[in-house]
Amino acid sequence: MTRKIKKWGTILNNQKYIALIDCDSFFVSCERKLNPEFKGLAISVVSGERGCVIARSKEAKALGIPMGIPLFQAVEKFPECFYIPANHYAYTKISKQVMSILKSYSPNVQVYSIDEAFVDFTGLTKLYKKNYYELAKEIQQKISDEVDIPVTIGVSTSKTLAKLASDMAKNSNDRILLAGNKTRLKLIKNSEIQDVWGIGRRLGLKLRGYGIKTAFDFTQKDDNWVKSHFGKNGLATKTELLGTMTSPISNKIELPKSISDTKSFLEFSSDLDFLKNELQIHIHSCCKRLRKIDCKCNSVGVILKTKDFRTFFEKVNLESGENFEFEISKTAFKILEKIYSPQILYRSIGIVLEDFNPIQETQLSLFGEEPEKHQRENLGKALDKLEAKFGRNIVRTGFTNKEVPFKQGFLTTPQDIN
Ligand SMILES: [Mg+2]
């Protein structure tokens, strides 16, 4: 009996409280902060001049504007909405202001994306003499007063639960949800399986095939079953849904906001194969940098600059994190084909990878997915090792077959190899 009480006491003492702070419609909120006249109006943020809608205000959503609709279609169908080109530089600056407020409350803050961060709340109630709800309320108010950005906060005992809590909090008036041990059960019973962090639509469908509809259903499955079907990451998700954290808040790595690579051509070109080859070189260099920091990106953008200095940029969100050339090229080539015109002469091409997650985090989304994804990861690492030993571009990935003259900077030079 004594042993049991002692053990329970230990669990309570080790109980973590994690908050997930999520900025509401971040790009839209930033635009409204910068241009207060947009408050209350239907606005959409668009990726570049010929881009797509990447963020919508609730008024724009109410008009029925779909996410990802190309600008020209959106303008035609929904002329009453204001379309604003994305200003990523400003958004990054505003994000830093939000994060610095969070860091002033806790030494353990994990910036998860431009508009989301996990904050270790454990023990802060004593320090600030407030309960977790009051603390979340204070932080929310401070961010609103000082940065003019609205945030939603979910607080619970693991990152996965904090994420679910913040999703659920979006439907409440105060946009805060504290899911302690008592409300945890209600939370997981009311959360659909595909909404659990790292599961998503595709894996959600697979789980539904096993009769698992909610997060709660998943926790009812036997550990061995979960492990044999979804590996150790599946088991970690189950543990997190049951209220125990499986990966710590890591504030050690400050992830870069983006990794990009661009270069002007020696001669202007409108040859699509040449552009693809040039793009492939940049993709390879960026993927290498991404693997070096053990990250995956969730967004791929392509920049094309014309002879007369016009810029075309478009980006696409990936279904799941990637850091391997083949997968990123597939998306990048699709973008290129969309923004490219054979009548135009171009002076440069570039790639922008954004929205990074550490591999440790993205592992959660890997369980149950195709084994090729793990093979690609290993292939990427092998490629980097080969290059470290034998020199740059010793192995080429996904280049087009068409030979391109050396002067255009495509082929490997002997100097590169040495
Ligand atoms: Mg957000």
Q: Helices and strands in order, then pairings?
A:
Layout: H1 2-14, E1 18-23, H2 26-34, E2 43-46, E3 53-56, H3 58-63, H4 71-77, E4 82-85, H5 88-105, E5 109-113, E6 116-120, H6 124-128, H7 132-147, E7 151-156, H8 159-169, E8 176-179, H9 181-189, H10 200-209, H11 215-219, H12 223-241, E9 258-269, H13 272-292, E10 295-306, E11 311-322, H14 325-339, E12 346-358, H15 359-366, H16 372-390, H17 414-417
Parallel strand pairs: 2-4, 7-8
Antiparallel strand pairs: 1-6, 1-7, 2-3, 5-6, 9-12, 10-11, 10-12
Helix pairs in contact: 5-7, 12-15, 13-14
The structure holds magnesium ion.
Give structural notes.
By secondary structure, the protein is α+β, with helices and mostly antiparallel strands. The protein has three domains: 12-23 and 91-241, 2-Layer Sandwich (Alpha-Beta Plaits), CATH 3.30.70.270; 26-89, MutS, DNA mismatch repair protein, domain I; 258-400, DNA polymerase, Y-family, little finger domain (Dna Ligase, domain 1). The protein contains 17 helices and twelve strands. It has helices at residues 2-14, 26-34, 58-63, 71-77, 88-105, 124-128, 132-147, 159-169, 181-189, 200-209, 215-219, 223-241, 272-292, 325-339, 359-366, 372-390, 414-417; strands at residues 18-23, 43-46, 53-56, 82-85, 109-113, 116-120, 151-156, 176-179, 258-269, 295-306, 311-322, 346-358. A five-stranded mixed beta sheet has the order 5-6-1-7-8. Strand 2 (43-46) and strand 3 (53-56) form a beta hairpin. It is globular, with a radius of gyration of 24 Å. The structure holds magnesium ion. Magnesium ion (MG) binds next to strand 1.
